[in-house]
Write a structure and sequence with these properties.
The protein is of the alpha+beta class. Among the domains are: 3-106 and 346-405, no CATH class; 152-266, no CATH class. The chain has helices at residues 79-95, 109-117, 148-160, 169-174, 185-194, 220-226, 229-241, 248-265, 279-298, 311-333, 347-356, 365-378; strands spanning 7-16, 22-24, 29-31, 51-59, 65-73, 99-105, 131-133, 141-146, 164-166, 181-182, 274-275, 300-302, 307-308, 338-339. Strand 7 and strand 8 form a beta hairpin. The longest helix is centred in the C-terminal third of the chain and has 23 residues, at 311-333. The chain starts with 6 loop residues before the first strand and ends in a 50-residue tail after the last helix.
Length: 428
Amino acid sequence: MKEHERHAVLMLDEIQLSSGLAFDQTTGTVIGRPTLPLTNGSLPHAAGAMHGLLFMLGGVTQRWKQTVAYHLTGNSFSSAAVQEQLIEIIQECETIGVRIDAVVRDMGGGNMALWRDFGIVVGKQSVSRVSCCHPVDQNRKLYFMADIAHLLKNLRNHLTRGQSIFLPENVVEKHKLPSNEDNLVPIQKLVEIDSELHINIAPHLKPSFLDPGHYEKMKVGPAFSLLNHDTATALRFLVQRGDLPQEALTTAWFIVTIYRWFKVLTSRTTKLGISKVNDQKYEDSLIFLKDIVTFFTDLKIGSSSKHVWKPVQTGIILVCKVALELQHYYLNEKGFFFVLLSRFAQDALENLFSTLRAKNAVPKALQFRSAIRAATLAEFFWPSRSGSYAIDDAPSQVGIENCHARAPNSNDTEAVEYPSDILDISMM
């Protein structure tokens, strides 16, 4: 591997397991108990494994991925124990020349405790800290990101639960919005009106997207369809036709803003990626991310009488701040040409989970271990068609430790892998 191909992100997430013990004939041991202590630090002998915690590496400049470790956890896990595992994995990776620049997890309670253990802090009344000193090199930083798709689903869930999002007054005045409240009511009316039309203006929207069930909430597709540019266009059309009040334009503006944020943070092509090829577009991208940080710092989620700071605000501010710092690191310090922020998402890990669930939606511990071994060794990562994440086509990097690295170069400007749309630069 070339030096620039060794920049990687470390992903970790849990998959639900069925509790139960089983005898593993390959090792002659009983499997099904947690391998990590619970939140209180204890590891009861009678406790059963409820989740599988998987660790995976993914390339930043080159499309590759590799599962590196797993653990069995109970109904909770010790963040301190996971912190030790993370540091150990990072040290092992750095030993063989793989540079871990960021750690990606969702917004679960245990994950936020892990962030606190590393000193990561984001809040309305606190000074944000989105990185810590790298465990291997004190001159480097280790960044922590929330998974973008999880944040989009969390934001959707606030709306579908009947909560409102109240925009800051300066935003309302700047964009000349008719009100400061964004809620689901205009979208509900849109779906009702659309169901009576012969030619649908929002064919991508289904009634079930407005009231998702337990498994529907796990899928990114319904959330993306709801908070989509096409939804905003349909709302504006109905306002112009007089079928919706002017207040629906506030919801339309909010949807367009979130849609753009999601596309930038999951960029897979040069047209959406961050690059200095076009100076004006580069500056616009940075200004937009900074505006999102201010926007989510000042907005309120809840009702007109009760609202509190939400984890989704923490996550969105965190990923925007990390994106701003990482683009500076890769473009200015490492000399890269593009930064595609989709490389910092958990699609690869979620694709693997879809494969592991192919035969059993909730496998037992032994089935989980057998499946993860088979998938890793066979490099069989094609996900289920019903998987809830976008397909990640990165190849596995088996034998990465045998790929000898060149001497480190702080200004490695060799040809970083270009996306397939490189010829479209003129369109930016």
